[in-house]
Amino acid sequence: MSETIYTPKWLNKSFLETALRSGYENHSITITSYEVTRATVDGENYGSNMYRVTIFFTRGSQSHKTSLVIKSELEEEEISKVMSEAKTFQRESEALEIIMPAIHQLLEQTSSAQFQPFAAKCFYIHTNFPFALVLEDLKEKGFRTAERSRGLDLQHCLLVMRKLARCHAVSAILHQKNPELFQKYESLFDEKRRKALTQFFEVGAKNLAVEVDKWPKYKNIYSEKLHAFSDGIVDFLIKDAAVDGNDFNVFLHGDLWVNNIMFRYSEDTGDVVDLRFVDFQLSYFSNAAQDLQYFLNTSTELDLLDKHDILVREYHRTLGKTFALLGYEQLHPTLEQLHKQMEKKGRYTVAMALTVLPIMLSDRNKVPDMEKLVKDGESVYFSDQYKQVLKKLLPIFERKGWL
């Protein structure tokens, strides 16, 4: 057996055998050897520890090999406390164990020939500290993440819109059938978390406003507005998070950006042909526009930042096709209604661009220390790429009246 320095004590043979027996529903499994390595590099994952485990095992008299991804909660004091209070791992475990299988089942019943899952299979959930999820290794099935520093091109973004629309549509149908299924998925932006929200969002936005003070061509136009925006950022995040029953509400991924999507490509043409969403720790049930705005303003290539209408129309078309397929055309919002919902999420979009996007676009050699960010309000290093993106976004935000 070969292990690396990244292996925590709890991630042992007994743990892995329990996970395999749960996933395969077979108690005759015995592990003969395994190897643990890191599943991500610095800057590719911020909310958990990720391990990849290659396992050799026997099932009955036959020998097998598999690869699993183990995702466990962070053990840093402040980050762990914030995530524990928000029940992020419980959100993700129930999303993968209950919500996504229900979505998959409904789609598979009506379109089995076309159906492709939205998320990885969950083999096992370890609920004692540290909370851990054991997932199928999507990399073994040919999926991989795109390069976050480049942003996604039109082909990738259109696929995301189609896949997201299908997932959103089916979740809206499930909610109409069984609203209790989503009762636990309240917003993360509420008064109970004001202290943590202030430490991250208000402090982060103020640090960004100070940075823009140093940009001669932008200071006179945006500086005063950004400082004022940061003062009220937590109040409107909480206010705007309230669910409006008149909106098109769905099960949100909640953290939909390039690193939380894995793509599969055609071996013949190299074209992107499928994807899986990963990391459902921030999921909740609310306005569909949140996922759209979050993705569109964090993950597209620079040239697509002012061409969102193309992608929103594709999302809307796919919603319509999915509702028609399942016989729920009455749930389909009009394109005008969808645009109005996106406008309602305008301030939320700016908030993410000022505070979360700098972390997403950080340089690999200057990865932010999330513990210091949350605990001490330490400022993020603003990479050249982030500055380039923000300088394109700010005039768009200004034009839309979101500042």
UniProtKB/TrEMBL annotation:
It holds the Pfam family EcKL. InterPro entries: CHK_kinase-like, EcKL, Kinase-like_dom_sf. This is CHK kinase-like domain-containing protein. SMART domains: CHK. Gene3D superfamilies: 3.90.1200.10. Residues 133-325 form the CHK kinase-like domain.
